[in-house]
């Protein structure tokens, strides 16, 4: 037990090993911990058979067993309707508009650190604890900063880049400052007697259990045949729905005519207006700058004027040096020191100052390198 204050902590327990160990560590630190499993599935009675998500009834049972071992109270809260509206419907709408969303960021922003946090605070809890790998640093002036996890290999700060100052003030990530491998986390779970020690990690999108994103979207948006064209507008093939493609995609294009140079082609643009997918060479994917909207700052916002940061563009991507400037408080203009590929509207760009997460914004448009420069 340290000199830190004893807090009333609500531990979000997904039924996986990370959230179970996080709850156990919070309890071991002397906090008054209550476990809660969020029922988010449209069909909460579904089972994990063949599934890779984290919202099945088995996950609820696993979370309850972990709470029993830790010795903390446990509840199941039904947030399925809120999840459907704020995460699933948003996901479908973004794809329908030709953008590529990240539902994990949306869930953290709208569910775990909004709906869940609001309910926790109303019930007298001080913090929400999760199994994310990130670190919250308390500054001398009382403000908080979000930093990368001690172990970069497990860092999840990218999907937490949407948290604002208020949310950070009530966030707890017990795994973030631990330099341990996932195998060691599992060993710790086993030592604690947690049944989930050997449970496989969830993958892909939690509400698409079989991993078939295109099939999931097709059921909701239907099929709509459209053209696949090259950069000159020449028709190369057809598709059943532009929503089934993402910028930078190479496989599954179903193009019968090979490129003149024999090299692979990639998705360069998705136009929902005319249901057209444009493909071309890898060099045409090079993005030199972007404009992002709906910025959210993790703690203090950046000072005015352009500044140098590093940026991360996907959950498991690397960092790249950028210059970024906020204009009119609404648009974030980002210029890359070197061109990057696979950047799509709808994705999040997360800015870092060293290990500190500055904030996040949603990519609206990109600027590509001219063909003459490639």
Describe the structure.
About 2% of the residues have low confidence. By secondary structure, the protein is α/β, with parallel strands linked by helices. Helix 1 packs parallel to helix 2 and helix 1 packs across helix 6. The protein is globular, with a radius of gyration of 22 Å. The chain is built from seven helices and 17 strands. It holds the Pfam family tRNA_Me_trans_M. GO terms for molecular function: tRNA-uridine 2-sulfurtransferase activity.
Topology overview:
Blueprint: E1 8-12, H1 17-28, E2 32-39, H2 57-70, E3 74-78, H3 80-96, H4 103-122, E4 127-129, E5 134-138, E6 144-148, H5 165-168, E7 171-172, H6 182-191, H7 213-221, E8 226-229, E9 235-239, E10 266-271, E11 276-280, E12 287-297, E13 307-312, E14 319-327, E15 331-340, E16 348-353, E17 356-368
Parallel strand pairs: 1-2, 1-4, 2-3, 4-7, 8-11
Antiparallel strand pairs: 5-6, 8-9, 10-11, 12-15, 12-17, 13-14, 13-16, 14-15, 16-17
């Amino acid at each position: 037990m340290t000199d830190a204050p004893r807090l009333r902590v609500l531990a979000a327990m997904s039924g996986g090993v990370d959230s179970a160990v996080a709850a156990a560590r919070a309890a071991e630190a002397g906090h008054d911990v209550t476990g809660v499993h969020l029922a988010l599935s449209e069909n909460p009675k579904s089972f994990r058979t063949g599934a890779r998500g984290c919202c099945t009834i088995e996950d609820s049972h696993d979370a309850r067993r972990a709470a029993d071992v830790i010795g903390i109270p446990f509840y199941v809260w039904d947030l399925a309707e809120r999840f459907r509206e704020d995460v699933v419907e948003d996901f479908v709408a973004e794809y329908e508009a030709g953008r590529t969303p990240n539902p994990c960021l949306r869930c953290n922003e709208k569910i775990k650190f909004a709906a869940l946090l609001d309910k926790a605070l109303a019930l007298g809890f001080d913090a929400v604890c999760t199994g994310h790998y990130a670190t919250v640093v308390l500054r001398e002036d009382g403000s908080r900063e979000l930093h990368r996890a001690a172990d970069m290999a497990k860092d999840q700060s990218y999907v937490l880049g949407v948290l604002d100052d208020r949310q950070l003030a009530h966030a707890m990530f017990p795994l973030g400052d631990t330099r341990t491998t996932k195998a060691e986390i599992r060993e710790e779970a086993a030592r604690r007697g947690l049944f989930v020690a050997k449970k496989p990690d969830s993958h892909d999108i939690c509400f698409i259990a079989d991993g078939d994103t295109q099939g999931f979207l097709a059921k909701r948006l239907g099929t709509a045949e459209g053209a696949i064209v090259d950069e000159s507008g020449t028709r190369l093939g057809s598709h059943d729905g532009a929503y089934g493609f993402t910028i930078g995609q190479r496989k599954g294009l179903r193009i019968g005519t090979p490129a003149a140079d024999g090299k692979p082609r990639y998705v360069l643009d998705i136009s929902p207006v005319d249901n057209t997918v444009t493909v071309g060479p890898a060099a045409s994917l090079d993005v030199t700058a972007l404009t992002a909207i709906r910025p959210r700052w993790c703690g203090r916002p950046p000072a005015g004027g352009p500044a140098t940061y590093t940026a991360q563009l996907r959950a498991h991507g690397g960092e790249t040096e950028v210059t970024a400037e906020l204009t009119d408080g609404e648009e974030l203009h980002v210029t890359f020191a070197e061109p990057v590929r696979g950047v799509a509207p709808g994705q999040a760009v997360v800015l870092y100052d060293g290990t500190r997460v500055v904030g996040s914004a949603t990519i609206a448009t990109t600027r590509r390198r001219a063909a003459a420069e490639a």
